[in-house]
Specification:
Elements lengths: L1 H22 L5 H5 L4 H25 L11
Helix pairs in contact: 1-3
């Protein structure tokens, strides 16, 4: 499970940095890098979204900083 958490975390970093670059006006770097392979770019976007869903569902169990027993989330 640790490997899946690590992969999801890396995908979230890629997605977050990509959105930062879109926000500051650089543009969509994933689309630029994978311009020759639009299907691969779409797969990256889907994987980033799935990684976010995975982290939402499993974060509390994976995060050492999250208090156990806190049911506010």
């Amino acid at each position: 499970m640790k490997g899946l958490h690590t992969a999801a975390f890396i995908l979230l970093i890629i997605g977050g940095l990509n959105w930062l670059l879109v926000g500051v006006g650089v543009g969509d770097v994933v689309a630029k890098v994978l311009a020759s392979w639009p299907v691969v770019a779409q797969v990256v976007y889907v994987l980033v979204g799935l990684a976010a869903i995975f982290e939402i569902a499993t974060h509390k169990n994976s995060c050492k900083a999250c208090p156990t027993g806190n049911s506010s989330m």
